[in-house]
Structure formats: structure tokens, C-alpha cells
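Aggregate trends can hide what the representation actually does to any particular protein. For completeness, the protein is quoted in full, as a sequence line and a line of C-alpha cells.
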Amino acid sequence: MLRGAFQRSGGLLRHMFGRSSSTLAESMVRAGAVVSVPNDPGALRDLLRSIDRVNLTRIESIPLADDTQQIANIHLEFCAGTKEPVNSTLENLRKSPSTVALAGVPWFPRTQKDLERIKGQTVQFGEELDADHPGFLDKEYRKRRSQIAQADKSYRLGMKIPKVNYVQSETSTWKTIYETMEPLRNKYACREFLYAFSAMEAAGIMRADHIPQLQTLNDYLNDRTGWRIRPVSGLVSPRNFLNALAVRVFHSTQYIRHHDQPLYTPEPDICHEVLGHIPMLCDPGFAAFSQEIGLASLGASDDDIERLARCYWFTVEFGLCRQDGEVKAYGAGVLSSYGEIEHAFMGSEARTFVDWDPMVASQTDYPITKYQPLYFVANNFTSARNKLVAFTSNEIKRPFGTVFNEERNEVSITWQGR
């Protein structure tokens, strides 16, 4: 549930240290740095003397591309209750006699457990609604959303995802969307989506008369691609959302749109997440593509986060692909929206199809409150992923690389020398 998928891209949060307005005790000012020091005895000891008044949470040497190199690269992460000691530590590291070069980087998660540090950090919706939201004046609806949001805030890794006992009006809204979209997804969805959706229907998970629980979906998804679902009480920042993809975690809401307008929502809700995103994440090729965007976001600059968010928008949210000589949909924003899928496929002159090009996509703005005028079309997920990897390798500038360690289920840092 990427903030930006339903909000203007110009509103991206700018945060070097990963701090939000959350008042949770876990909300610390966090920072990191990749420091290059001489590959000599005593260099690391001298470097560590520069660290003062912060908690050192990680120190790790980055494997060298060449064992004969005279420079060692150290990845440090540290935190404190305020910015001042963090900024002071960065400056001390920069001035250390042992420092050959220093690149400050935002804190980022390396494991699913690391996501506990950002829990509760939502930036919009959830319990608070804009005045133009269909449910703004409905006190009972707002109370219901608050109940669901509070339950999701209590979630911790290892717990069962809080169960939501959906009431009749909510199930009726789901049923309307499910049945309205059924003939359209059968006609326009890509084969990977249809295969996954059919399998979920056969397993009794997807039904028109029942909203599936996130815990059931989480178990099903984890068995197939190793991904997990993390409940969230509202929209999260682009950095936090994309970072979670790197460790195979998808943030999902559990509340549902207002019953007065079942075919419209100004935000992601359980219908968008389950009828759009989850079936595609059951496909290994698509899941790998999504993870590549996440891996590229780790430690990326704010500007690069915005570029990657655009790539996410034009693929995971509104992507199309070619299959058997026809254009099909794989983006959740198309597959879960009657209006969007009609606009994309039913001969509208107000939209254009172009070949998937991450460089172009990363520089292209998009409308939030209107149907998309531009759709990127991929040949297949393998080629789409290869193009994305080439783009991120050449264009996303970081002092290190990131790979996912399958055996340890965590992100490893590699030296890229860029």
C-alpha cells in the first residue's frame, strides 16, 4: 500500500533518518554510513573513537571486489533519541583521520524483524479521513475503521494477524466488487493472475460471499513465494513501503471502502489489496520483480526513492503485459477497479500504451484522481525484471549493492565501488 498510489507524487516524505510523526518508543532517529578506511591494523579502532552519544546498532565490513585493495569499506548504523548526536557522529566520522571517504545513507531494514522499528508509522488515512472521503460524515463507518486500525497497530512479528469480523454491509460491498470484476478479470487479466486467482478460489480462500482474513492469505502466500503480509493501519511512506518489499513483506490494510460507493475508493483498502495485489504475489516471477524494486530502494536517496515509486506505480499498480498477441493487465490498480480496467481496455482514445522502459517511467508524472493516460506494457516479467535491474544498477547511485540471501532470509550488502 504505497503512499503515492493514491496521493500526488509531489507529496513524498523527505526523511534522511527514517523518522515519522509516530510517538511510539521505537521512533528513534536512525542513520547509517559507509566509511572507507585504510586496510591497515588499527584503522577500525581509530574510526570507532569517533562514535559518541549514539547507540551503534550495526557494524559490518563490505566484501571487497578485489582482495588486493588497500581500502576497507565499513557499513555502520546507529541511532539516538534526537538528531543532534546523530549529526554530530556523522561529522566526527567524516573528520576522523582514518576516514578516506564517507557516504551517509538512510537507515534501512535487512530482515523482516527490522520492520518492527517502523511499525505504527503511517502518514495518511487509517483513522483520519479527508473531507471529500465518501465516509467522512459517517460516524459509524469512522468508528469501525478506528477499531480495525487500532487492532492492526497492536501487531508484532510472530503474532497472528488480527482477525476482522466483517459485518454484513462490508461483506456486501466486497461481493459487489467481486462479482462486478469477475467477467472483466477473466477477459483482461494476465494468465499468472488468473492461475493464482483460480487456485485461491479452488482452495476456498476467494469467494464472493466472504472476505478472506489476512492471516489466511499470509499463510497461503508464504507457502508459495516466501512472502508475508504485514497489516498496517494506514498509508506508509514510499521509503518504508518499498524497503519492506526487499525483505518480501507486503503492507496491507484491512479496512474496506464506504458502502455507499462500492466501486470507488480514494485509497487502498482490503478489496484493492486482495483482489489486486495478493494473487500476483503468488507468482514467483512477479514476486521477484517486486523484490527488485525493494532491493534498489535500500539506502537510496530521496530523489531515487521517488523515481522507484514511479516505477512501482507504472508496473505493480498499473502495469500491462503482452500475452498471446493481446495486451493483458497485471497491475493491481487495474485489476481491482471497474473504471480503470474499462478505461484501459475498452477502446478509450484518452490513453496510450508504450513499451516498458524504467528510465522513462521513473521520470513520468501520473494523475491520482483521474484514470491513467499512459500505461507501460511489458513483454513478460523476466524481461521486465532484467530491464529494471539494468536501470537500478546504472541509475540508482549508492555506495554499496544489495542482494537477498535466500538461506538466511535477509539482505546482504555487497561492494559496488560506485
User: Anything to note?
Assistant: Residues 3-26 have pLDDT under 50 and may be disordered. The radius of gyration is 22 Å. The longest helix spans residues 168-188. Residues 161 and 214 are 7 Å apart (CA to CA).
